[in-house]
Amino acid sequence: MSNNQVSTLSGRAETIGRKYPHLLERIALLVAIAIFIFGHQAVSEQTGEGIFSVFATYCLFPFILLFSTEIIGRLIQSMFRD
Predict the structure, then answer these.
(1) So what's the pLDDT on residue 71?
(2) Which of 45, 66, 73 shows the shortest CA–CA distance to 57?
(3) What domain range includes position 32?
(4) Model-level pTM?
(5) Number of independent structural domains in the chain
(6) What span, in angstroms and rounded, lies between the C-alpha atoms of 35 and 69?
(7) pLDDT, tens only, 46-71
């Protein structure tokens, strides 16, 4: 690149859009972590004893929380898209 123009590797001219609110996604993730910390005991009590209780408490419950956080993040992305 001999000239001083700013471009991408493919030579496209891109415009700078609005800043993406990463803070909202981080807050959603922290809320999901807090829900797991304070809610795993209730999930364990609701599912009873045995291997299913362990699976539901430490695999299924965090998966559902992270999936929900991902959906919230994608909704935030769609709201703040240019």
Answers:
(1) 96
(2) 45
(3) 22-79
(4) 0.72
(5) 1
(6) 11
(7) 998 999 999 999 999 999 999 999 99
CA separation for the pair 75, 27 (Å, rounded): 14
DSSP assignment of 44-82: HHHH-SSHHHHHIIIIIHHHHHHHHHHHHHHHHHHHT--
Question: What does the pLDDT look like over 1-27, one tens digit per residue?
Answer: 445 556 677 777 777 767 777 888 899
User: Which pLDDT belongs to residue 72?
Assistant: 93
In a domain, 53, yes or no: yes
Q: Which long-range contacts (CB under 8 A, 24 or more apart) does 43-51 make?
A: none
In a domain? residue 40: yes
Give a yes or no: residue 5 inside a domain: no
Signed CA dihedral, 69, 75, 78, 79: sign only: negative
